[in-house]
């Protein structure tokens, strides 16, 4: 669990105070397993992992300006974007930064910025990373988190703090909570995330299978091995460097 507050006191939680000039307070949410290839290829379109395209501007997300960097005693940096999103790289991956529109896999653990840090999404414990096109926002991700994802290298782990106006400014009622989400979200509540972009490789076909598979794993385990890593037969997931 991330310490609270995980950002230095001088920076302060970005959920406090009004949005930066030009931001609309009403911005809301944009909004080891084996899967058969026949089924896996359909998962993205059917929203099995909570995926659907949103109307947020991918180009705008990619070009979010950094307005501040603060060096910490341990050598890490807190980066603050013009939107109010702040992040720290917990691990910089050895992969490349994916292009907008690339299909990526991400493990996400999200916390409400409240006492005891209640977890509202945790794909690690669910055993199902999110599968989505970079620049879109599946269930469990928010506009603010998408901004932070846009500059991550494959294999990276990043701690992200999202202001309420880039999360769920109107909240999320219990009746609308659907997997992978676990909890209702209070109105104007800030969010914190740990997010990891997985790396994938093309594995040879096994046991007489005609088609090969994509194997996805953390950066530390790359290149992925059949014996211990996530096996995801989704043809749309490109092999990665």
TrEMBL record:
Gene3D superfamilies: 3.10.50.40. This is peptidylprolyl isomerase. One of its GO terms (cellular component) is chloroplast. It comes from Symbiodinium necroappetens. InterPro entries: Chloro_FKBP-type_PPIase, PPIase_dom_sf, PPIase_FKBP_dom. One of its GO terms (molecular function) is peptidyl-prolyl cis-trans isomerase activity. Its EC number is 5.2.1.8. Residues 101-201 form the PPIase FKBP-type domain. Keywords: Isomerase, Rotamase. The lineage of its organism: Eukaryota, Sar, Alveolata, Dinophyceae, Suessiales. The keyword Isomerase applies. Pfam families: FKBP_C. It comes from the Eukaryota. It catalyses: [protein]-peptidylproline (omega=180) = [protein]-peptidylproline (omega=0).
């Amino acid at each position: 669990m991330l310490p609270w507050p995980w950002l230095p006191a001088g920076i302060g939680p970005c959920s406090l105070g009004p949005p930066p000039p030009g931001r609309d307070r009403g911005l809301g949410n944009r909004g080891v397993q084996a899967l058969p290839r026949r089924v896996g290829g359909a998962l993205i379109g059917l929203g099995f992992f909570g995926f659907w395209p949103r109307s947020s501007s991918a180009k705008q997300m990619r070009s979010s300006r950094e307005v501040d960097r603060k060096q910490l005693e341990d050598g890490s940096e807190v980066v603050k974007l013009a939107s109010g999103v702040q992040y720290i790289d917990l691990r910089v991956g050895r992969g490349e930064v994916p292009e907008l529109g690339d299909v990526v896999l991400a493990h996400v653990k999200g916390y409400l910025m409240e006492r005891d840090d209640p977890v509202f999404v945790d794909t690690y414990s669910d055993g199902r990373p999110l599968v989505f096109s970079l620049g879109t926002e599946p269930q469990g991700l928010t506009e603010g988190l998408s901004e932070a994802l846009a500059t991550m290298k494959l294999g990276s782990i990043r701690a992200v703090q999202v202001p309420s106006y880039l999360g769920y400014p109107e909240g999320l009622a219990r009746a609308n909570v659907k997997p992978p989400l676990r909890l209702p979200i209070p109105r104007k509540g800030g969010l914190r995330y740990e997010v990891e972009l997985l790396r994938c490789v093309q594995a040879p076909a096994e046991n007489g299978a005609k088609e090969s598979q994509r194997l996805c794993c953390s950066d530390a385990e790359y290149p992925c091995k059949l014996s211990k890593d996530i096996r995801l037969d989704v043809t749309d997931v490109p092999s990665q460097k």
